[in-house]
C-alpha cells in the first residue's frame, strides 16, 4: 500500500516513462484512475498507481488491449486491498489466466525474435 504521498501527473510521467497524454488517456479509458485530485482538479497519483501504470506499460509489448489492462489492474487492486466481501479465489483465478496468457504471448514473441535473428544473420552474410 502507498505511504500517502501523492504525485502530480508530470512526476508520474517521468517515473513511468509514459507521456502525460497516455496517462490521461488511461484515465479516460477507465484503465486506471488517479487516487485523488487537487482542489483545482489536477490528478494526483499514489505509489500504488505508479506500480499499476508500470504494469500496464509492461503489458503493451505483449499486445494486451486497454480493456484487458483495465481488468488486470482492477484484479490486482482487489488483491492488494483484500476487502472481506470480495471473492479473492475468483480474482486470483483471473490473475492466473493473465499469467498463462502472458506466457503464451511471450513464447510467441520469442519465436518472432528468433526469425528476426535469422533474418539479420542472412543479411549480414551478404
Could you outline the blueprint of secondary structure elements for this entry?
Blueprint (H helix, E strand, L loop, with lengths): L6 E2 H8 L3 H9 L7 E2 L5 E3 L1 H13 L6 H16 L6 H37 L2
Antiparallel strand pairs: 1-3, 2-3
Report on the structure:
GO terms for molecular function: DNA binding; DNA-binding transcription factor activity. Residues 6-75 form the HTH merR-type domain. With 126 residues, the chain is mostly helical. The chain has a single domain (7-125), classed as Multidrug-efflux Transporter Regulator, Chain: A, Domain 2 (Orthogonal Bundle). Helix content is 66%, strand content 6%. It is built from 5 helices and 3 strands, in the order E-H-H-E-E-H-H-H. The protein has a 3-stranded antiparallel β-sheet with strand order 1-3-2. Helix 3 (47-59) runs antiparallel to helix 4. The model has no long low-confidence stretch (mean pLDDT 93).
Tally of strands: 3
Number of domains: 1
Low-confidence stretches: none
The averaged pLDDT comes out at: 93
Question: Rg, please?
Answer: 18 Å
Portion of residues within helices: 55-70%
User: What is the level 1 CATH name?
Assistant: Mainly Alpha
Strand order of the largest sheet: 1-3-2
Protein name: MerR family transcriptional regulator
InterPro entries: DNA-bd_dom_put_sf, MerR-type_HTH_dom, MerR_fam
Organism: Curtobacterium luteum
GO molecular function, one term: DNA binding
